[in-house]
Write a structure and sequence with these properties.
The protein contains two helices and four strands, in the order H-E-H-E-E-E. A four-stranded mixed sheet has the order 1-2-3-4. The two termini are about 20 Å apart. It has one domain: Rossmann fold. It is an alpha+beta fold and about 100 residues long.
Length: about 100
């Protein structure tokens, strides 16, 4: 699937954002910091690299928790770099493989 996706993106005449297919636990430090991050697989705990790569004033939405006890979390990093996390609602996502 990775090769097919890369081939489709390479053949398109439009300019697309950069694509990285990898383990999402470590984020994408080469392009950090990020204003917004949306994570679509659930780690047991929110990965520290993702929090670190969030820009001051940034937000991240991430499912987190054990498979039968996941919560959709909103992570806010304020202008001083302090991080606040809030549970939004119970969810069930695929586990983030690390």
């Amino acid at each position: 699937m990775r090769k097919t996706l890369r081939s489709c993106v390479d053949k398109c005449s439009r300019k697309f954002p950069e694509l990285k297919i990898a383990n999402g636990y470590h984020g994408w430090s080469e392009h950090a910091p990020f204003d917004r991050v949306i994570v679509t697989a659930a780690p047991d705990l929110i990965p520290p690299p993702l929090i670190h790569q969030l820009k001051k004033g940034g937000k991240m939405v991430i499912p987190a928790g054990l498979p039968d006890a996941q919560q959709l979390m909103l992570v806010d990093k304020d202008a001083d770099g302090r991080v606040a996390m809030r549970e939004v609602l119970p969810v069930q996502f695929s586990q983030l493989e690390t």
